[in-house]
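Duplicate of #3305? Posting structure anyway:
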């Protein structure tokens, strides 16, 4: 059974850092496009960062560029999102997603989703 499990969320002060992890089971991430998405209360789910199956291509939402970094460890079958210089507007539930064919960083392009992890940025 294909499964994605996120971890690493929590409460952090503005300017702080968190690293989210997304462990995959039931399939190998190597050739899957992966993405991190987030959804704040009352807002639509949005793409934060996505990486192509080969890892050769990555993109970031304008709001996180220069602060967030997506990476993958294929040996551990795990995807990461390093989040630095966090702002209150980064508060949201963060989801990881995977898809064999996704070519764009939008939720509708991804078939497999984790359950989400809450990130709260507040003093």
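Output from current build:
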């Amino acid at each position: 059974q294909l499964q994605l499990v996120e971890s690493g969320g929590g409460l952090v002060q503005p300017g702080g850092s968190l690293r989210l992890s997304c462990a995959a089971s039931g399939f190998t991430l190597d050739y899957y496009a992966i993405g991190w998405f987030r959804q704040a209360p009352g807002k639509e789910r949005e793409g934060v960062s996505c990486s192509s199956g080969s890892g050769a291509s990555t993109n970031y939402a304008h709001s996180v560029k220069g602060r967030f970094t997506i990476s993958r460890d294929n040996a551990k079958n795990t995807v990461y999102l390093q989040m630095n210089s966090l702002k209150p507007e980064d508060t949201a539930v963060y989801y990881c997603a995977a898809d064999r064919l996704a070519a764009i960083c939008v939720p509708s392009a991804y078939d497999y989703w984790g359950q989400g992890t809450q990130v709260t940025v507040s003093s």
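Confirmed duplicate; merging threads. Residues 8 and 20 are 5 Å apart (CA to CA). The first strand starts at residue 3 and ends at 7.
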